[in-house]
Amino acid sequence: MSEFRTRHAREHIDNEMVIIEVNLDDCSGETLSYTMDRLFAAGANDVYYTSIYMKKNRPAYKLSVLSDKKKQPLLEEIIFRETSSFGLRYYPVSCHRLGREFYQAETAYGEVSVKIGIYQGEPIKFSPEFEDCRKAAEKHNVSLQNVYDEAKSMATMHYKS
Amino acid sequence: MSEFRTRHAREHIDNEMVIIEVNLDDCSGETLSYTMDRLFAAGANDVYYTSIYMKKNRPAYKLSVLSDKKKQPLLEEIIFRETSSFGLRYYPVSCHRLGREFYQAETAYGEVSVKIGIYQGEPIKFSPEFEDCRKAAEKHNVSLQNVYDEAKSMATMHYKS
Amino acid sequence: MSEFRTRHAREHIDNEMVIIEVNLDDCSGETLSYTMDRLFAAGANDVYYTSIYMKKNRPAYKLSVLSDKKKQPLLEEIIFRETSSFGLRYYPVSCHRLGREFYQAETAYGEVSVKIGIYQGEPIKFSPEFEDCRKAAEKHNVSLQNVYDEAKSMATMHYKS
Amino acid sequence: MSEFRTRHAREHIDNEMVIIEVNLDDCSGETLSYTMDRLFAAGANDVYYTSIYMKKNRPAYKLSVLSDKKKQPLLEEIIFRETSSFGLRYYPVSCHRLGREFYQAETAYGEVSVKIGIYQGEPIKFSPEFEDCRKAAEKHNVSLQNVYDEAKSMATMHYKS
Amino acid sequence: MSEFRTRHAREHIDNEMVIIEVNLDDCSGETLSYTMDRLFAAGANDVYYTSIYMKKNRPAYKLSVLSDKKKQPLLEEIIFRETSSFGLRYYPVSCHRLGREFYQAETAYGEVSVKIGIYQGEPIKFSPEFEDCRKAAEKHNVSLQNVYDEAKSMATMHYKS
Amino acid sequence: MSEFRTRHAREHIDNEMVIIEVNLDDCSGETLSYTMDRLFAAGANDVYYTSIYMKKNRPAYKLSVLSDKKKQPLLEEIIFRETSSFGLRYYPVSCHRLGREFYQAETAYGEVSVKIGIYQGEPIKFSPEFEDCRKAAEKHNVSLQNVYDEAKSMATMHYKS
Question: Beta-carbon neighbour count of residue A120 at 10 Å?
Answer without folding.
Answer: 10
